[in-house]
Amino acid sequence: MGTDRDWEKWGASDPYFGVCSSGRFHTHSMAAEARADFFSSGEAHVSRTWDEIEHAFAMRFRADSVLDFGCGVGRLLIPFARRAKRVVGVDISLSMLKEADKNCRAAGAVGVEFVESDDGLRRVDGTFDLVHSHIVLQHIPWRRGRAILAMLAGRVAPGGFLAVQILSRHEASPIVRGLVRLRYVLPPVNWLRNILRRRPVFEPAMQLHVYDFETVRTDLEQQGFSSVHLHERFDGFRSTSIYARRSA
After folding, report:
1. I want to staple 168 with a disulfide (CB 3.0 to 4.6 A). Which of 111, 177, 213, 229 is the partner?
2. Distance CA 26, CA 203 (A)
3. In the predicted model, what is the mean pLDDT of residues 164-189?
4. Angle at 174 between CA 168 and CA 180, to 5 degrees
C-alpha cells in the first residue's frame, strides 16, 4: 500500500527523521547531541506512559511483555526493554527494523524481538501486558487504522493495557484538507511542494489522518476495555492518548 512503500523509503533513506521529523534528526547530518536527545526523548515518553497508566487506574503498573507497533529505529524499545522481559518491535519497514536491531544491540537491550508488520499481526506470537503505539496510527488512513486498532487490542492479555495515540480532530478548513489529500494521491503535487520548500523532489509525503475518537472508544468498550484519554493540541490537530485496560 502507498503508506507502506513510503515508510520503507523513509527507513532506507532517512529513518531518524522519519520517526521524529525535526531537522536535527536527519540521519546523515545528525550531531551526537541530537542523537542523544532523540533517544532520551524515548525514555521520557515511556516514563510518561507508565505514570499515566498508574495515575489513570490508581495502581502500580508492571509489564513483563510489551508490543510496540510502529517501533521505527527502536527509540522506545530500549526503555521498554529496561522494564519488561519480552519486548516485540513491529514495523512495516524492514530498513527501520534493521536499524532498530543495531540500536538495541548497541544499548545492551535484551529480550527484544523484531517482527515485520502486517495488518493482521499474523507474525506476532502471544498476548502482552502492554500493547503500545505512538505517532504511528496517525500516518495510516482511518478505515485501515481502525481495523489495525482492533487487532492490537486483541493482543492485550486479560488485565493488560493498551496505550495508543491518534489524531482526533483538525483545525484546517475543508479546502485546505482537500489540497493536502491531493498530495497523498497525486505524487506530482507533492513533488511540486517539495521543490517550493527546497526539499528532495521525490521525498514521500508524511500522511496525517484523523480518527473518530468516539468510535475508537466504543470499539474498545465492545472488546472489554475500560479507558481514559488525554487530549492535547498538536500543530493544528488534536492529539489524543488513550489508555485502556482489558477486563481480567
Report:
1. 213
2. 13
3. 79
4. 80
CA distance linking residue 242 with residue 149, whole number of Å: 12
Domain positions in the chain are 2-246
Name the nearest CA neighbour of 136 among 186, 227, 73, 229. 73
Cα–Cα distance list, 214 to 51, 84, 138, 166, 211 (Å): 24, 31, 16, 12, 9
237's enclosing H/E stretch is strand 237-246
**What architecture is domain 2-246?**
3-Layer(aba) Sandwich (3.40)
Q: pLDDT tens, 63-115?
A: 999 999 999 999 999 999 999 999 999 999 999 999 999 999 999 999 999 99
**Where do runs of H (alpha helix) occur along the chain?**
2-13, 15-19, 32-57, 77-81, 94-107, 142-154, 174-185, 187-196, 213-222
Least confident of 100-104, 178-182, 207-211, 228-232: 178-182
Record the pTM. 0.92
**Angle between helix 2-13 and helix 94-107 axes, rounded to 10 deg:** 40
**74's grid cell:** 527502536
The amino acid occupying position 17 is F
